[in-house]
Write a structure and sequence with these properties.
The protein has 747 residues and is of the alpha+beta class. Strands 6-5-4-3-8-7 form a 6-stranded antiparallel β-sheet, with helices on one face. α13 runs antiparallel to α16, α14 runs antiparallel to α15 and α15 crosses α16. The longest helix is centred in the C-terminal third of the chain and has 14 residues.
Amino acid sequence: MLRNVQLPLLPGTSFKINIGQTKFHKSQHFEHINNMPILTEKVKLGLKFPSVFARGEAAELPAWIAFDKQVLCFEAFFQEAAQERPGYTYHIRKVKIFLFMEDGTIQVLEPTINNSGIPQGTLISRQRIPFPAPRNEDFYDILDFNIGKEVELFGRVYKITNCDRFTRIFLNRVGIHVPDPINIPPDPYSVQREKLSEGMVPKKPSRHIDKLGQFLDFDRKVLRFYGYWDDRESLNGMLHDLEIHYYLADDTIEVKENIPPNSGCDSGFMFLHRCKLLKVYEELPSLGYNDPHTVLNVLSTGFLKGRYLVDALNCGQQSVEYYEDSDLAIGAVINVYGRKVVLTDCDHFTKEYYAKKYGLDDFTPHERPRADSGVVKKQTYPLPPYNGFGTHEDSAANCRNVIPVQPHRHFKKVLNKDRQGLNSHILRFRAELISKIPADKDRQFVISYYLSDDTISVYENALHNTGFIGGEFIKRTQIPKPGQEIYTSEPPEYFGPQDFYVGNTLLLYGFEFLMVEADEYTLQYMELNCQVFPKSNIILIKNKIREALKPIYKQFVCEFLKTDPDQIGVICYANLSKKLKEIMGDSITHHELITLARHYNAQCKKEWYTKESLRSVVHTEMKRFLFNQMERLHESFLQQDPNRSGYISRDTAYAVCRGAKLPITRELLNAVLDKIFKNEAGEIDYRDLLGFLDLKQSPPYPTVPTDTQYEFSLFANKPESRVGPLVDYQAFLKDVDLEKQVVEESG
């Protein structure tokens, strides 16, 4: 059914046009294409053929699929007229013709030739190209391109001379014979240019110095040397890292300085702009000193009507020597306008150039002096002595600046150690004032140490009928240690976190305080960060006790058995601390005894989450969020452990896990790090941590997802480890592990 365009597409308005037709065959016959008989089907034009395949052999797939990314490439040339050119009247320009089989589009590209003076590149962009009139209704296709044919594309005739291997095989497979390649005629301009370069064409005598040949031979060829200029003897001097470029095209030199990052200097600084460098520099040159010609005034009646002549003897011309490629070498020293630049190394192209031209084979880099990463040496000037007004840091900042500024704070430390939820990062101790005044014996103080800025504050608790109102005793500030010279230029040493532990005595502004107790948060925080607080490191405490009990271990065990006649495995904390004090004396502090008693407390509650149950909770969270970055986590741990010791600090392990986006909360991550094995320094065994997080290694039983942020807060659901009246001495003796050694020595 065919539609009649004059009638609407409605029932009764469309009619068959083949009514009465008895033959419905398609006329077929052989046609000669490239002198070969091929069975084809004619189209309406009668001259073009849609396919070179016989009927029944054509591909069923469409062309954009069957011939995807298949391109026929032909080499061709065209002749372009050159008007008013001496010696030649035309150019021969070589091109490449690309025929895209998927859609029949054609692209003509002329390869780029350096210094040709002709705009080259894409001559005809990719498109379907019609035949010239009067056949401009039809387009070029595969049958119109072959070696030896001439095609007219948009008014320009191209002669096809060759094709690539793929094109030849493709045309042969479809039955098209491809002739042998045709030689391209020579270009008259290129032939004339070669004769000029070889000196075959005689030149006119001229005094002009022609450097065109040097430019054409060495254009874009640059020698690169690396060197330095040592200027450290001058005030605020530094070791300049330089890069020397020698342009072979015109014998010019430029020097570029490599500025290191964060050096305070402007980046991209050009030490010497491109110019011809004098070997000997004495003063600024006069105008025309390097002109190759000397002009003589033969007869002058004025500037416009005078007669001038070029001096053939060049009288008065100065002899100026410039640096050339023969003057540059590794280890050479060149004079850059009074600055001695030492060449230390060169690149690969420069080495090949000198090896080919001068026969050099030794390119050992020259040793350069060591520098502080190229950073400018800062002149340190002594500060005036501290006068007692304000803090030392405030006085030092005002001395270094004309306008008074506030001292810089350690912002990274402030951000990490500032209050975060229930984690206050404040260590609080109950202290007593040591004084000879009887009224001061009952006074109670609270000493707070702020980890964010190392400041200390002392607060006095008010008691009834004592005569002291209480309140702020010492304002929050940094307090220097006693026994230091105050009025000096050097900053004093302040109290640090290692100075705060139970049993220590602090002298704060003339008041002597004895720290007798710490709150639960302080004890737990110091135990969690035992690498910073050695008095809370249970491993170091056990090693210290083990060394002290080696010679008297039997007697010590007997004393334990006397205090435990019923053999229930516990001992009174007062007896244990008293006995250890008698043996070790001042080598063990009261804070270490508290840590020991908390670790071996016989009355502590059981843990709410064991290591295996905690592992189940972590794996449930990892499966919920489809975590699959174990390899990245392992690489991050190895990067933080260059010595491959297997241990890293707790803070580093925490940062690596957070950086790998481990899908657990901060509270749950802290609970996991508490369960991981640690060494004597309190460092985390990241191999144990990787095994703990590995989903493939002995998968634990699944558990119900919980609110980990609430269940695993920083100090929630932890076993109670307060100092109790009883200590599990059996576990303590087992960890001391001296029984086997004593038995071997006695036997």
